[in-house]
Specification:
4% strand, globular, 27 helices, two-stranded antiparallel ribbon, 624 residues, mainly alpha, single chain, 10 strands, 2 domains
Length: 624
């Protein structure tokens, strides 16, 4: 597609007056449209430091013009006055039944009378969110964000806005992606063009058609309506393109590119109407819609959710939960399992895990994919199922398998590549702990690791991760033991050092319970020349022999598991880790989770109904 001469010239120069150094065409385009050279300077200077807390109420508003005179609206007429929800208790903890959910009420939890909903650092779309958003916005499946610099994860998940840094390199990659996406969007004969350009400019006029097109496109891309001034700046690309010899479609492509480069798209701003206010405020329907869709789908709101936001219908708890119920029934909710579940339990590592062929010759990419799919399907039941107790995921007597995985597990009567629900009755397996993805990602390339497996149980089931090991700890292979000794014997010798013993005496007995499964999750009875000893004990002192007994014992740790699940849901839904002031909300979530028989779907609903999810505390410029 031909580009207007003045834009090409400015692109070749790599800069534009007033644009931040290193931002190139990114800053130039936004400077022309008036959507953020000042913001981009601020973002580059502050958000590139993971330790800097930049909020929607601090500094220059995303979307501000280079003069700083125009600021990004916080969401239009649905934005409350800022003090209407000042009590901090509106609607949360009421235990509302979810309309049409077919599940029991999340339960009534004691209200927190002094809750502080906190604030979320202005949230940049991470790689998964960017890819999913352009898929749903433009129908693009090329996953352009895979070329972006890697996201840095927080303590829990990679959607932690406190550590989603920015950099000139990221802006450059975003520029490349936006140009390619906008060009493809209006390509002649493309499916996206017919959906985006819904009018005939030769019949209704260029500006009238451009306004129609960009009103609809910006509404979806920015997750809220564009203002009249913003639309005027976007549609100005059409006469600019035509004045330089290009056509209407090229002008729309430039407007789309600018829309995708705007902080309104690349970030999820929550801007406080009164940044100097101190009382918590209820989020606007547009802000709530964004939180909900990126929580459950890691993507933008769909047309139904957008319509509810336009009608101001998402500030009511029952309406919000009804939307959540609908969304959990959509295929896009599988992302909640693969992203949240994959990071929580570490199965995302299956994409790169590399058992050595000399040690595990049967491992291949087909088995890798099967192990990953098994866990995703299994977690789908326990994370979104209407009645299942999350505790049962530890010792469930079934799994999902295809012929390749069934062969690896020694399960009979499974044929074909399609996955099917398979009984584990009478086998050595039960629940999440004995799945190949868990066992493989907690092993070394050549052998099992009771240490890594024990640490996994502590960190991901009990949420009590051990501290990092001290420096200069000798490798296990350097521990002097008789030839042919089992891993257990080597570890027992290894932890004779008192500096190692404190942690290993807690971790290792948990990992020993899984020693009947080799480094890729296959059953074994011998480790080297010695019989496997799978006895161990929980930190509480409860003894067990093997994975099934360990799962049963772990299942009784309801208080720890409830607190762990509540913390994970809190962190993933908000894109921030909890702090001391969030303990009341976490206690409330845990109480509701227990009262709903540990049904994970009810925990999701309780989080969505909470003050912390639906509100934010304004932050004064420069404040915390």
């Amino acid at each position: 597609m031909r580009r207007s001469p003045d834009i090409n010239a400015q692109r070749r120069s790599g800069s534009r007056s007033g644009s931040p150094r290193g931002l190139g065409r990114f800053g130039m385009l936004l400077g022309i449209v008036g959507l953020g050279s000042t913001c981009l300077s601020a973002c580059t200077a502050t958000l590139s430091d993971p330790g800097t807390k930049t909020t929607g109420g601090a500094g220059t508003n995303p979307g501000a013009s280079s003069s700083g005179a125009n600021t990004l609206p916080s969401g239009g007429s649905n934005t409350p006055s800022g003090t209407a929800a000042g009590s901090g208790n509106s609607g949360a903890g009421a235990g509302n039944a979810t309309p049409g959910s077919g599940i029991s009420s999340p339960g009534t939890a004691a209200a927190c009378t002094t809750i502080d909903p906190g604030r979320v650092t202005i949230h940049r779309l991470n790689i998964l969110e960017y890819n999913n958003t352009v898929r749903d916005l433009l129908g693009d499946t090329t996953q352009p964000a895979n070329a972006f610099p890697d996201d840095t994860g927080g303590a829990n998940f990679d959607n932690n806005s406190d550590v989603l840094a920015t950099s000139p390199l990221l802006f450059s990659k975003m520029e490349t992606a936006a140009e390619a996406l906008s060009t493809a969007a209006v390509a002649t004969g493309s499916a996206s063009r017919a959906k985006i350009i819904t009018c005939d400019s030769t019949k209704v006029g260029d500006m009238a058609c451009a306004t129609t097109v960009m009103t609809a496109f910006a509404r979806k891309a920015w997750r809220r309506p564009a203002t009249t001034a913003e639309l005027a700046r976007l549609t100005a690309f059409v006469p600019l393109a035509k004045a330089n010899g290009d056509g209407f479609d090229q002008g729309i492509a430039l407007a789309i590119e600018a829309t995708l480069l705007s902080p309104n798209f690349t970030f999820r701003p929550e801007l406080d109407p009164d940044p100097t206010a101190t009382a918590p405020r209820l989020l606007s329907s547009y802000e709530i819609a964004s939180r909900l869709s990126y929580f459950l789908w890691s993507s933008m709101p769909d047309d139904t959710l957008n319509a509810a936001a336009d009608a101001g219908g998402l500030q009511d708890v029952s309406s919000l939960q009804a939307q959540a119920t609908r969304m959990l029934g959509d295929a896009k909710a599988s992302t909640l399992v693969s992203s949240m579940g994959g990071q929580w339990f570490g199965t995302y590592k299956m994409a790169t895990v590399a058992p050595l062929a000399t040690s595990f010759p049967t491992f291949d990419d087909t088995l890798r994919a099967a192990m990953t799919q098994e866990t995703n399907l299994f977690l789908q039941d326990f994370m979104t199922g209407p009645t299942q107790s999350f505790l049962d995921a530890l010792d469930a007597s079934y799994t999902y398998a295809n012929a390749r995985l069934a062969q690896h597990y020694g399960l009979p009567a499974v044929t074909g590549t399609a996955f099917q629900k398979v009984s584990l009755a009478g086998t050595q397996r039960a629940g999440l702990l004995t799945q190949g993805s868990i066992l493989t990602t907690t092993s070394f390339p050549t052998r099992t690791s009771p240490v890594k497996r024990g640490q996994w149980v502590m960190a991901n089931i009990l949420c009590t991760p051990p501290p990092a090991p001290p420096d200069n700890v000798p490798a296990l292979e350097k521990t002097v033991v008789p030839p042919g000794s089992s891993v257990r014997v080597q570890l027992n010798a290894h932890i004779a050092d008192p500096t190692c013993a404190a942690c290993h005496q807690v971790m290792d007995p948990l990992g020993f319970g899984l020693e009947h499964f080799d480094g890729i999750g296959a059953w074994r009875v011998m480790d080297g020349t010695q019989a496997v000893d799978a006895t161990g004990q929980l930190p509480s002192g409860t003894s067990f022999d093997g994975a099934q007994q360990m799962a049963t014992a772990l299942k009784a740790s309801t208080t720890q598991i409830s607190a762990c699940a509540s913390t994970k849901v809190f962190s993933y839904s908000l894109g921030r880790d909890p702090g001391p002031s969030d303990q009341c909300q976490l206690n409330q979530l845990g109480t509701a989770f227990a009262s709903a028989n540990y049904n994970f779907r009810s925990l999701l609903m309780q989080m969505i109904a909470s003050d912390t999810f639906r509100m934010r505390r304004p932050v004064a410029p420069g404040g915390q």
